[in-house]
Amino acid sequence: MNGRTKHRRWLTATAALASITLLMSGCAGASAGGEDTDGASTSAQGTGTDRELVIWAGSQTPITPNFNPYSVGVLHLANGGLYETLFAFNKVADTEPIPMLGTGYEWNEDGTELTVTIREGVEWNDGEPFTTEDVAYSFTNDTGRPSYLANAVAVDDTTVVLSFDAPQFTNEFALLGATYMLPEHVFNQHEDARDDETGLSGLVAWTNAEDPVGTGPYMLESAGDASYTAVANPGYWGGEPDVKKLRYLGIDANQSAEDLLATGQIDWTTMFVPDPDRLTAAGLGYVNTPVDPTVLYTCANADRGCKGEQTDVAVRQALSVAIDRAAINEKAFVGLAKEISPTFALLGRDDKWIADGMPHEIEQSADPAAAGEILQAAGYSKGAGGFYSKGGDPIELTLTSVDGWTDYNNAAKLIEEQAAAAGIKVVASTVSWNEFADSRVAGEFELIMGGVVGTSIADPYQIYNDWFSGRSTTPVGTPLEPGQWNFSRYSNPAVNEAVKVAAGTADEATKAEAYATIQEHIVSDLPYIPLVVNASQTFFNQKNYTGWPTEEDLYVFPPAWQGPTSGLILGKLAGSE
């Protein structure tokens, strides 16, 4: 239970009211909007709450309209702005969850039943009531049903009971904070959808691109290749948002987004900026919240169809010790990232979960000699060109990153150079976002510069379950299912069993023992090679809007792309006086 052992979490009327106040608070009135210049700024006209809030959440052009939370290509408005979870969890603090569509929950003693109460009087944006039947459907439809869920039953108008065949305490966040509530009367009409181009079928194949029906603070207005817009939901349960219109832009490179941000043409974004002082000097608000690991994805398991020298654990180990992480942080991330633990526990917040004997942080400097020793012990020898090979086959790995992601592109080039110094040939290249997304979902890659979604509570379980568990992956060539994040195709029986044990206990000692087993294997196996905990730099227009998370009040994790909490932030914003 969020790292705590209590089983009961009925939220008081005061707590529930506080969550509504959080969404409604803010000042009325406003100051003038941006100047009428070319491009995106023309959309930011108006005064006060009529001023259009412009957001870049990482989308590139052309934008493909997709507002289905089950889809890999879902656009950021959907997760939080249109669709909501039962509760919102604060990723940057170990605090009580915020009531959203749920008002309280309670586990039974053995963790096989979770009883949830829902908020009364909520409506979908088409006027239909939000019901416990919708909640049960959101958990039990064929596309979204968790593998560990036995059933979800609407007991009455305000109560839903989730049942499990084994204890599931540790999946509390996945159930309550990461499962979007969906309208049964809409989604059940598309369960037989099919996309002949991708081969996808079921709800995951439906784009939900026209008039999506949600409970969130905003409703879709229009969608095009370059941007999409949303308007405030007048019937929102938390009160109609003060900001009446949003525009999400598609931008193909960080530098372009930074230039628009610096000139007042973007109001909210989370992106890497090497010189944040340039933007804060212009009056923008800023907060850096490093919580998400940046890693090298490796397609790790040959028995799952992975191909390439990276399937040899010795190659992964040698590459890891060949990396100078301090140099990468300084040169690619300009010192804004933080040290990472090879256990994937967040240093500082999750220290109690790092097992005895496990390194707290990964080595920051490179050791080319040690890399060579690892490879030589595994039967590799260095050839005339200075690179290691085995049986005449040289190690040559392709490392891809998304074109325009300058921090990741720079880090990849540094890794190419550092690996070469250790006799490992790595070729860094860039690809489009679509190529990146398709390759990692299908497992058709060797190395990728990518991110891992950090846990939203002070407990590394969600990373272990989502990114390292064998049940969260598929064979290469078979796309991952919704909710699966194990892009490396890693599966280790000892890790799988330990994840299962951790999921079934509320006892911290038992969970810590399971985590020790997981850490022993992933620190050695390195299906994801840890680099840094990446900077999450969020910039926001504090001149025209109030209500942002700040260093003084980090009420939720602030990125523009983070669902579902981005919707909570949008509901709280107001025009400044």
Fold-level CATH name of the largest domain? Dipeptide-binding Protein, domain 3
Shape, principal axes of CA atoms: globular
Instruction: Compute the separation of the termini in Å.
Output: 41 Å
Q: CATH superfamily assignment of the largest domain?
A: Dipeptide-binding Protein, Domain 3
Overall pLDDT = 90
Which structural class do the helices and strands define? alpha+beta
The spatial strand order of the largest sheet comes to: 9-10-11-2-12-22-13
**Total number of helices:** 16
Spans of at least 5 consecutive residues whose pLDDT stays below 50 are 1-48
CATH class of the largest domain: Alpha Beta
Major β-sheet annotation? 7 strands, mixed
Beta-strand segment tally:
24
Helix percentage: 25-40%
Protein described:
The protein folds into three domains: 8-12 and 86-187, Dipeptide-binding Protein, Domain 1 (Dipeptide-binding Protein, domain 1, Alpha-Beta Complex); 28-77 and 199-289 and 536-575, 3-Layer(aba) Sandwich (D-Maltodextrin-Binding Protein, domain 2), CATH 3.40.190; 292-534, Dipeptide-binding Protein, Domain 3 (Dipeptide-binding Protein, domain 3, Roll), CATH 3.10.105.10. Strands 9-10-11-2-12-22-13 form a seven-stranded mixed β-sheet. Mean pLDDT is 90; it is low at 1-48. The longest helix has 18 residues, at 508-525. 25% of the residues lie in helices and 19% in strands. The protein has 577 residues and is α+β, with helices and mostly antiparallel strands. Strand 18 (396-402), helix 11 and strand 19 (425-431) form a beta-alpha-beta unit.
